[in-house]
Amino acid sequence: MPTAESTLPAIDLAASSIEITRQLCDIESVSGDERTITDAIASALAPFEHLEVTRDGDALVARTTHGRARRVVIAGHTDTVPLNGNLPTRFETEDGTDYLWGRGTVDMKAGVAVQLKLAAELADAAVDLTWIWYDNEEVASDLNGLGRLAANRPELLAADFAILGEPTNSLIEGGCNGTMRVELRTTGRRAHSARAWVGINAIHAASAILDILAAYQPRSIEVDGLVYREGLNAVAISGGVAGNVIPDECVVTVNYRFAPDKGAEEAEAHLREVFAGVDLVVTDCAEGARPGLDAPLAQQFLAAVGGEAKPKYGWTDVARFSALGIPAVNYGPGDPLLAHADDERVAVHQIMECERGLRAWLQQS
Amino acid sequence: MPTAESTLPAIDLAASSIEITRQLCDIESVSGDERTITDAIASALAPFEHLEVTRDGDALVARTTHGRARRVVIAGHTDTVPLNGNLPTRFETEDGTDYLWGRGTVDMKAGVAVQLKLAAELADAAVDLTWIWYDNEEVASDLNGLGRLAANRPELLAADFAILGEPTNSLIEGGCNGTMRVELRTTGRRAHSARAWVGINAIHAASAILDILAAYQPRSIEVDGLVYREGLNAVAISGGVAGNVIPDECVVTVNYRFAPDKGAEEAEAHLREVFAGVDLVVTDCAEGARPGLDAPLAQQFLAAVGGEAKPKYGWTDVARFSALGIPAVNYGPGDPLLAHADDERVAVHQIMECERGLRAWLQQS
């Protein structure tokens, strides 16, 4: 019987970022099951003496301590959403573009691969670096490894600027929208459906809510020069007691994605205005993050990478840095529209672009 | 250890119908668990030589065979919906009315009690009698004991007229509405809710269906002199994939209660007209029954019992007799609005009225 040590999958940090992506993806690490990939990463980093590695559960923090004037955090999560027959990875060419296909290629092991390669190679960057690879990003917020680190070891997160490697097609995306979930509830009175007039149908009453949703025109809001597109959508509806009973309750769960000009209170106030008179309970909220592109390090990063910054629509952990007062942007390979998709795949040239962009900036800044 | 025989609960057919109701109710017989009550009834009937008793599973058929010109079926089910802390029974007085309170008192052991008492006592009625007590009325149609008898032993159901003892406040209720369930489905396209504009929200699309339901004016339709009130109601709605996904499907389950002027085809055609353009699948249908009050025996019964016949709104097993070409009415003690209720209770004077009505007719007809 082999020992645990001998069965640990190898990650070769001397290989290309593309090859490291493949190695990382082929280690299954659905949220809650990040132990093996974390062990493998820790083992791969062990030889590099310029990195001071700290482990907290299945999160790893690898820091340089050169005493530079500024410190940058570069972070990525190691977990993925569940598989759906999309591992092991494979290389494919589609319309002349080479892809690495499989779960995690976009969200976000290509970004982690680039980070690992640069963590190993950039022993002497112009800024001090704090690399973070963490667990449980794809599940409930209270399990999030970055949130746990921020609570347990806040000193490890201290920095002047942060980059999160979430997929952005290797373009810089600033800030993120906030997200709020509310339950809208209608009530009625049960009755046998053979004598419906004795009851009050709560599902019929929900027509007013769906009418509002169907007619709602989501706004586009400019924040610090970037335009954030909002969204207001039912993500679930449920009601019904039995096939012969007039239902006395119907619940519509609505997800509001709101621009980072607003905090949770303003977002809730907007929903209470939109659904005036409807029973509304906020069940979940994460505020967004302003783009943070006015920070000097962000300006330099933008100049080094080139291109134009865009807004990030999805909520990401940049908001956690934002909440700590650290300007943060998203920057990573992969098309975010393919994240979580069954045909998740990353264009390999984006992996190389991301590596070049980060390397160029870290060597000059 | 007592033998099975010795633990069989006793039903005393010399007692009053009210007392027999209490005895029957205190024998739990939720659908599928009618063995004990059926054994007890069979045992109570055994001494009466004018009855020829046949058992089929947990259904009993007790027939007189005097060679009369006409035969009447009088039937009732012995099962109840599940208990909810409402057994054993108790007597209560409310606003000067005496009630027997508990599961099954209304639906429909008071009716069965009256039937058992008359089956025992009317050894020489003017018509031949076929008493039927059957199982599994409160569950899926394919388990129904009367349906099973109709398939296994159709000759036992032959009759000129049928009375079903379902609760009608001891008034004659003719026929019954039909019932049809359909699933109305909207489809869309999944997307991450952070980029909702990439998807199509199927729950929002269901607003058109709920608008139709909320605005629908159910009809009242006269059939053979009785006015049947229809109903069209959502009894369930479901949709949603996850809290951050634009849903690609929403299903509204609708129950249509239709007057007995229509068969299944006409009912479906009406729904296809009301929900024109919506994906509609019929999942369940039971046609209603015309009142059957023009049959000579029905007219005599009406005259003997007195009062005015009313329409039955809920679907009942009279439709099974109707389908066999046997005119059938509902007639039993208890307020149908209290059937299945947690505070199910029967006004005891209705039990006596029902017994008097049936006895008067059977002795004269």
Describe the structure.
The structure is a homodimer of 365-residue chains. Chain A is an alpha+beta fold and 365 residues long. Chain A has two domains: 5-176 and 289-364, Zn peptidases (Aminopeptidase, 3-Layer(aba) Sandwich), CATH 3.40.630.10; 178-286, 2-Layer Sandwich (Alpha-Beta Plaits), CATH 3.30.70.360. Helices cover 29% and strands 27% of the residues of chain A. The first copy, chain A, is built from eleven helices and 19 strands. The first copy, chain A, has helices at 4-7, 17-25, 35-45, 105-121, 145-152, 202-205, 207-215, 264-274, 296-305, 318-323, 348-364; strands spanning 52-56, 59-63, 71-77, 90-94, 97-101, 128-134, 161-164, 173-174, 178-187, 191-192, 220-223, 226-229, 231-240, 245-246, 249-258, 279-286, 310-311, 328-330, 345-347. Chain A has an eight-stranded mixed sheet with strand order 1-2-6-3-7-18-8-17, sandwiched between helices. In chain A, β1 and β2 (59-63) form a beta hairpin. In chain A, α2 (17-25) packs across α4 (105-121), α4 packs parallel to α11 (348-364) and α9 crosses α11. The longest helix of chain A has 17 residues, at 105-121.
